[in-house]
Write a structure and sequence with these properties.
Blueprint: E1 2-5, H1 11-22, E2 26-31, H2 35-47, E3 52-56, H3 62-75, E4 79-84, H4 99-127, E5 130-135, H5 138-142, H6 148-168, E6 173-180, H7 193-202, H8 211-222, E7 233-236
Parallel strand pairs: 1-2, 1-4, 2-3, 4-5, 5-6, 6-7
Helix pairs in contact: 1-2, 1-8, 3-4, 4-6
């Protein structure tokens, strides 16, 4: 049983990789730029007694995605779970978003999940089993000021999740997503202390989320306990913005 996780060198992807390894999956640790971090995720998983292998996979390159997914199936094992975690964020006034900024945001966050899902589905459909977990965002649910391109891409991920769930449900495959609130990773590391304190104050549970909080929801959606759950979005946000 193999779980493929994009962007698994760090942050939420790394936490999900460690968690799914603990759940009994062999982990295909996919990375784009963070080769050393991915090697560390692999060695930590192997030290824990599970199996893992690193693969370079750029989610914006559909040919690369197709060939890496084929390699994983051939030399690592049958893909049971895909976690579309790779993502980028950026803050900008809407009127300052260039064509390139808009396109890159859509390419990584939305097209990336499309390419990876399209690449694994023929294998899953053939076996009539599989689970896809997409990482969206609170801003895809509610909209984030000065992050309109990111919000639009993540709202697209939620829409894709619901539509694809209907299409592949008859093939025994579930498609769900997790929408994190503010989680302490490299993506949020530029926030200063007063911003972090303000965000904590806005959060009913009174703290910032950790990657492991999101990994718990990923683990649940990938598990047999979620066999009858599809097309759903789980918000992991400490009660923020609800
Ligand atoms: P992170 O530490 O910056 O991780 C982002 C990951 O995306 C990295 O592992 C990176 O891989 C990967 N990535 C970026 N571009 C890629 C590409 N072209 N191809 C393949 N991988 C690529 O941030 P994070 O917080 O863990 O983010 C993980 C997911 O959670 C993202 O989808 C993000 O939008 C979502 N999210 C995060 C928060 C938050 O507050 N942190 C909130 C809501 C949603 P490399 O480093 O190897 O390039």
């Amino acid at each position: 049983m193999v779980a493929v996780i994009t962007g698994a060198g760090k942050g939420i992807g790394r936490a999900s990789a460690l968690r799914l390894a603990g759940d009994g999956y062999k982990i295909a640790v996919c990375y784009n730029r963070s080769k050393e971090a991915a090697k560390k995720t692999v060695s930590d998983i192997i030290l824990s007694g599970a199996k893992a292998k690193a693969y370079r996979l750029d989610v914006t390159d559909s040919e690369n995605v197709n060939s890496v997914i084929a390699d994983i199936e051939k030399d690592f094992g049958e893909i049971e779970v895909l976690v579309n975690n790779a993502g980028i964020a950026e803050q900008s006034l809407f009127t300052d978003i260039t064509d390139e900024m808009w396109q890159k945001m859509i390419d990584v966050n939305l097209s990336g999940a499309f390419y990876c899902s399209r690449a694994v589905l023929p294998y899953m459909i053939h076996r009539k089993r599989g689970k896809i977990v997409n990482i969206a965002s609170i801003w895809g649910e509610t909209g984030g000021s000065c992050e309109v391109h990111y919000s639009a891409a993540k709202a697209g991920v939620i829409g894709m999740t619901k539509a694809l769930a209907k299409e592949v449900g008859p093939s025994g495959i579930t498609v769900n997503c997790v929408s994190p609130g503010v989680i302490l990773t490299d993506m949020t590391s530029h926030f200063d202390e007063s911003t972090i304190n303000g965000l904590k104050d806005e959060t009913p549970l009174g703290r910032i989320g950790m990657p492991e909080d999101v990994a718990g929801a990923v683990s649940f959606l990938a598990s047999a306990d979620a066999d009858f759950i599809t097309g759903q979005n789980i918000s992991v946000n400490g009660g923020m913005n609800i």
